[in-house]
């Protein structure tokens, strides 16, 4: 396409003409429609003719839209080719995402990386898809997106998981977090509300869920019944667009209803739609893998083919806000950048609004912006056309808009409380002397949170000064809300008048007056509204709250920290207000300031000197600990320990895992960074307490072990026990070599197997006897490790069990391998009988014609295998049972370790002793009533239940068990595949 | 304050108590059927007889003591975690709805739902065992979607009152919710 001055001028002219045409037709219709619709006879015009006119106008509109689109976009405007940053080794590029700042995120088909490119194609960063800590645990991202908080999220189809890269972890590089398991996620996107969209390919679903700051998934919804959804992209109105394999592209609304499918709406035939995206002005772009094109589907008008040639296998698609279209071409293994100009609608959005208001004198001819709000004008035209027989133009349009606004207002006002005034009054102020009430007025809830009472005498200027100072420090808008009179004897008339006068000094709307007479429990409460026109008396509710408890408690679940939090919950606003004005309560009762306040005052912390000393001491202690930890982790990371046999050993010993876990805990505790929020603080405290308890239990165990030569006794019993086990095994083998349980085995094979295993046991016994002089010493040194914690000792125990039962493991492996071989042989020979074979390339069973001698040999082998199977199966069964026994014992030990590791002891103790600190919410108790007096409620803290405490604050563990379901375990056992108690390297951990 | 007798879905007598604290605050309490001495003694004697039978067979006195422990612990667990004495609903027009169930041992479990979250209170029907029963529930507002319902909180789950009682409760709840709506409308009219 040429962009010379001349053509562009021509283009402008054409656009101007189109616009004039549209505007003309609008004015014609506007003037014509009231005439046509007048009740007093239609002249010669029939309804049919009106409809015809409307149809013509509609088709004109469509044509204008099409021409506008064709004028606007240009075809095959290739700007740049960005080669795949991974190279060609790992397959072509497939997933692509363009963030708002123009950087591009690219994934390839089987490369464990996410590359971040600049808009010009330079590689800015490469994020290796590896779980930190466990080097070999990599995954292959299919598609990539960026969440609203700027974190990279990828879909991992192989493991069926969604990962998010969290750059703000304790590790400097950041780490990948598995946030959710999904069957087989293919495409991923983030919609306009910040929720994550995931296309589940095999299940045929699109999931949508939100992610909170602790990376938990909330509000999970799914759209079922899709045919192989592959790519998903957000639509501008809060909905989303999904492409189905060899099918259609569907558009969904924000409430997950099917809005339309593109093929039916535009009459377009897709080959195999792949990547989808939505550009700035709401047009949907679809890449077609089969037809090798990219089409643009504008909101109005027919589809435009943006890229028709030059693509080999387009996969992902992304649009930048700067007018570029990025196509991931998996066939040529590069990202192609095309020009995709931002349409005029987005460019002139601001102007269109301004002009839309003063539409009568629209400066259509003389303005320098020729393509005025076309879309808006066409929309309006359409509105007019669609209802030719209804009211004339003005009301039709106006009514629609007003009702929308009204609905909006109704919705907002429902969320605001009704016109009942709520006064939250601290119960500690009920005996305060007369004065004025200060606190925060929350107008949207129509409630007043009173924080303190200022006594007489005071100077109003000083009070105002003090309040502005408090407001500056606490960022809470504290003001004088009303007056408080506490008359001990009879009502003093002068005082009440004076209090009313105070309202003129401190102007607040409404002015709350609370008065207590004598020792009466029932206070009278009234409001003064100076500017109110309504004489109607408002209902007032007095809510008493315990200032200290409300200040110290934390509402659960923790609030989202975004500024819109105030509409989330009313009570949280009150909690927040009280907690923030902590500084107000710091003043002591002996402080002799210019103002006297009554509010909750702490009686001082018990043993505060000790606490202070500990605080002072903890800083150098933490520094020392950090230094030691860095040295230890440096040693651990050294290369000597990474060579093959050693690294293999480390990964199999549970003690190493546990030590690494504890090391991480210590690093968390000793880091001198201050905990940013409540969750992190609790996490630190929980880790600290669990570590302390663990070490205490370990030392207890040690003190028990090292007294009265218990180690020696243990060593003395250990060898005979191992011997005994070996003897029992020998007996078992002898029994198996005979006729076990009256079964008749294949004698020759039975003998061979039995001798083989017997020889193994013989080896084992000699090994044990070789070891026996050193056992006591080994136990003595190993026992020392209990001072590192009970969990470490338990892990060592588990490892010792694993080592001592190594022969059982060997038997199991031999048995399983033999059995497995036989099963596979039998199954393939069974296929041979039926004239079939397994096709490796296609992963399916094909029919095949065999020769006669092939069949003969096959039959022979089948018979032999079939008759030998019971013998092998018996050995396999016996040793598998033995193995399972050991695995169960080890599993129980690990469960115990996990329990100690993950139990949030600090939170539980807090819940037990200071139940108000962890609040699930509040509860109200209705206090005694008297007619004519306001309703009195007592607000109490509703503590979190223990189950919730554990659930919220549970510490994450390294769970290293393969989470097989029972059926898959049974299947594995039946087929003779090996089962492991530890994490299998090939499997990704859960 | 008034108390009226109704029947639960299973036919046991229950009492509905309604207290009007103020114009916009109302408390509705349903008292569940009391623990019957007959059933308690039947269960206890059954456990003890079984224990005695085992004792005669095995001649081990552990059986008898364990039977006593089982009965005691079972009773404590039943009274503290299972048996609900009273379920009450406190509707405060401008604040919210509070659902309290008090157990026979005196333990209370409370949930407070803010008015902003409450979308409506409705009567629903459900299939329970072999029959269809009605129950009252609170619909919670979905924060993302003004039309949607995020959760349904069933009320009076333990006492399961019949429809006539539910209608009574429903009407008094709706009165207060209506008040709130009219207040809203009048405030918008200004």
TrEMBL record, chain A:
Keyword terms, alphabetized: Glycosyltransferase, Membrane, Repeat, Transferase, Transmembrane, Transmembrane helix
Q: Does the keyword Nucleotide-binding belong to this entry?
A: no
Give the residue range of the signal peptide: none
MF terms (GO), sorted A to Z = glycosyltransferase activity
Q: Where are the NHL repeats?
A: 140-168, 267-300, 311-341
Does Transmembrane helix count among this protein's keywords?
yes
Gene Ontology biological-process entries: GPI anchor biosynthetic process
User: Where are its TM segments located?
Assistant: 617-636, 687-706, 752-771, 778-805, 811-833, 854-878, 884-909
Its recorded name reads Phosphatidylinositol N-acetylglucosaminyltransferase subunit Q
Automatic annotation (TrEMBL), chain B:
Instruction: Tell me the route in metabolism or biology where this protein functions.
Output: Glycolipid biosynthesis; glycosylphosphatidylinositol-anchor biosynthesis
One MF term in GO for this entry?
Answer: glycosyltransferase activity
InterPro entries from the entry?
Answer: PIG-H (IPR044215), PIGH-H_dom (IPR019328)
Kindly indicate whether the keyword Transferase belongs to this entry: yes
Transmembrane region(s): 40-57, 63-82
**One Pfam family named in its UniProt record:** PIG-H
Q: Which family does it belong to?
A: Belongs to the PIGH family.
UniProt name for this protein: Phosphatidylinositol N-acetylglucosaminyltransferase subunit H
Organism (species): Patagioenas fasciata monilis
Per UniProt, what is the name of the gene that codes for the protein in this document? PIGH
């Amino acid at each position: 396409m040429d962009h010379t001055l001349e053509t562009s001028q021509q283009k402008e002219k054409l656009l101007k003409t189109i616009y004039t045409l549209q505007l003309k037709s609008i004015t014609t219709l506007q003037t014509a429609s009231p005439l046509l619709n007048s009740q007093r006879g239609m002249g010669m015009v029939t309804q049919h003719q009106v409809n015809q006119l409307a149809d013509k106008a509609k088709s004109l509109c469509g044509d204008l839209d099409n021409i506008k689109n064709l004028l606007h976009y240009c075809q095959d405007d290739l700007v740049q080719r960005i080669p795949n940053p991974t190279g060609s080794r790992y397959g072509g590029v497939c997933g692509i995402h363009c963030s708002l700042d123009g950087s591009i995120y690219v994934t390839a088909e089987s490369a464990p990386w996410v590359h971040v490119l600049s808009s010009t194609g330079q590689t800015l960063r490469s994020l290796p898809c590896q779980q930190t800590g466990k080097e070999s645990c990599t995954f292959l991202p299919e598609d990539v997106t960026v969440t609203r908080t700027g974190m990279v999220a990828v879909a991992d189809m192989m493991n069926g998981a969604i990962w998010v890269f969290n750059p703000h972890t304790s590790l400097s590089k950041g780490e990948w977090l598995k946030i959710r398991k999904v069957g087989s996620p293919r495409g991923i996107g983030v919609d306009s509300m910040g929720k994550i969209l995931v296309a589940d390919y095999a299940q045929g679903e699109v999931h949508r869920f939100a992610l909170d700051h602790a990376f938990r998934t909330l509000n999970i919804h799914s759209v079922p019944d899709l045919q192989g959804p592959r790519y998903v992209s957000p639509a501008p109105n809060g909905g989303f667009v999904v492409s189905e394999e060899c099918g259609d592209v569907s558009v969904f609304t924000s409430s997950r209803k099917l809005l339309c499918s593109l093929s039916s709406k535009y009459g377009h035939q897709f080959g195999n739609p792949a990547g989808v995206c939505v550009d700035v002005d709401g047009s949907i772009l679809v890449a077609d893998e089969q037809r090798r094109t990219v089409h643009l589907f504008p909101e109005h008008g027919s589809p435009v083919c943006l890229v028709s040639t030059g693509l080999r296998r387009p996969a992902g698609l992304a649009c930048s806000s700067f007018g570029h279209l990025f196509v991931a071409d998996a066939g040529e293994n590069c990202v192609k950048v095309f020009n995709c100009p931002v349409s005029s609608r987005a460019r002139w959005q601001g102007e269109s609004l301004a002009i839309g208001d003063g539409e009568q004198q629209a400066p259509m001819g003389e303005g320098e912006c020729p393509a005025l709000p076309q879309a808006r004008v066409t929309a309006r035209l359409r509105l007019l056309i669609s209802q030719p027989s209804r009211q004339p133009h003005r009301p039709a349009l106006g009514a629609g808009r007003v009702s929308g606004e009204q609905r909006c207002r109704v919705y907002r006002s429902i969320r605001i409380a009704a016109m009942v005034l709520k006064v939250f009054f601290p119960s500690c102020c009920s005996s305060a002397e007369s004065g004025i009430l200060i606190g925060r007025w929350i107008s949207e809830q129509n409630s007043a949170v009173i924080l303190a009472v200022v006594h007489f005498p005071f100077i109003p200027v000083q009070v105002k000064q003090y309040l502005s100072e408090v407001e500056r420090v606490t960022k809470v808008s504290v003001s004088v809300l009303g007056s408080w009179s506490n008359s001990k004897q009879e009502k003093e008339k002068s005082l009440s008048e004076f209090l009313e006068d105070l309202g003129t000094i401190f102007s607040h709307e409404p002015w709350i007056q609370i008065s207590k007479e004598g020792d009466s429990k029932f206070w009278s409460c009234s409001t003064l509204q100076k500017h109110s026109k309504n004489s109607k008396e408002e209902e007032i509710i007095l809510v008493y709250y315990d200032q200290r408890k409300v200040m110290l408690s934390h509402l659960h679940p923790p609030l989202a920290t975004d500024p819109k939090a105030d509409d989330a919950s009313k009570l949280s606003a009150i909690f927040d207000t009280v907690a923030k004005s902590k500084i107000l309560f710091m003043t002591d009762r002996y402080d002799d300031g210019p103002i006297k306040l009554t509010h909750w005052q702490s009686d001082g912390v018990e043993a505060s000197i000790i606490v202070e000393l500990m605080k002072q001491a903890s800083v150098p202690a933490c520094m020392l600990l950090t230094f030691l930890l860095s040295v230890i982790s440096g040693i651990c990371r050294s290369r000597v320990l990474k060579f093959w046999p050693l690294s293999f050993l480390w990964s199999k010993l549970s003690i190493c895992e546990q030590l690494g876990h504890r090391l991480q805990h210590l690093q968390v505790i000793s880091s001198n960074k201050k905990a940013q929020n409540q969750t992190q603080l609790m996490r630190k405290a929980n880790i600290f307490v669990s570590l302390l308890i663990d070490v205490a239990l370990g030392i207890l165990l040690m003190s028990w072990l090292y007294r009265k030569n218990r180690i020696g006794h243990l060593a003395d019993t250990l060898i005979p026990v191992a011997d005994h086990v070996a003897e029992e095994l020998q007996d078992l083998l002898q029994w198996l070599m005979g006729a076990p349980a009256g079964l008749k085995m294949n004698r020759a094979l039975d003998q061979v197997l039995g001798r083989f295993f017997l020889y193994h046991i013989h080896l084992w016994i000699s090994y044990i006897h070789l070891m026996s002089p050193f056992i006591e010493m080994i136990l003595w040194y190993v026992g020392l490790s209990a001072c590192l914690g009970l969990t470490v000792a338990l892990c060592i125990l588990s490892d010792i069990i694993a080592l001592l039962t190594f022969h059982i493991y060997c038997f199991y492996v031999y048995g399983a391998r033999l059995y497995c071989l036989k099963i596979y042989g039998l199954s393939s020979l069974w296929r041979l009988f039926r004239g079939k074979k397994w096709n490796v390339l296609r992963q399916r069973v094909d029919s095949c014609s065999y020769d006669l001698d092939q069949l003969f040999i096959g039959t022979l082998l089948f018979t032999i295998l079939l008759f030998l199977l019971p013998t092998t199966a018996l050995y396999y069964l016996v040793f598998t049972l033995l193995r399972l026994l050991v695995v169960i014992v080890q599993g129980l030990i690990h469960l115990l370790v996990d329990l100690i590791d993950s139990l949030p002891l600090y939170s539980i103790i807090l819940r037990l002793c200071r139940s108000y600190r962890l609040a699930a919410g509040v509860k109200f108790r209705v206090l005694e009533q008297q007619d004519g007096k306001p309703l009195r409620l007592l607000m109490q803290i509703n503590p979190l239940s223990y189950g919730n405490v554990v659930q919220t604050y549970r510490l994450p563990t390294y769970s290293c068990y393969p989470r097989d379901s029972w059926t898959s375990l049974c299947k594995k056992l039946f087929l003779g595949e090996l089962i492991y108690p530890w994490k299998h390297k090939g499997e990704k951990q859960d | 304050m008034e108390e009226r007798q109704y029947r639960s879905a299973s036919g046991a007598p229950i009492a509905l108590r309604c207290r009007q604290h103020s114009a916009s605050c109302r408390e509705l309490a349903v008292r569940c059927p009391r623990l019957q001495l007959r059933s308690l003694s039947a269960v206890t004697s059954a456990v003890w007889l079984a224990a005695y039978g085992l004792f005669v067979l095995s001649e081990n006195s552990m059986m008898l003591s364990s039977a006593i422990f089982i009965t005691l612990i079972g009773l404590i667990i039943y009274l503290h975690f299972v048996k609900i004495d009273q379920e009450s609903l406190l509707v405060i027009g401008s604040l919210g709805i509070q659902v309290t169930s008090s157990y026979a041992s005196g333990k209370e479990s409370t949930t407070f739902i803010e008015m902003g979250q409450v979308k409506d209170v409705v009567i629903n029907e459900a299939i329970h065992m072999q029959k269809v029963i009605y129950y009252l529930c609170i619909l919670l507002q979905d924060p993302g979607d003004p039309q949607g319902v995020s959760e349904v909180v069933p009320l009076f789950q333990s006492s399961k009152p019949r429809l006539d009682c539910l209608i009574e409760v429903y009407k008094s709840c709706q009165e207060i919710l209506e008040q709130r709506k009219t207040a809203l409308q009048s405030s918008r009219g200004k």
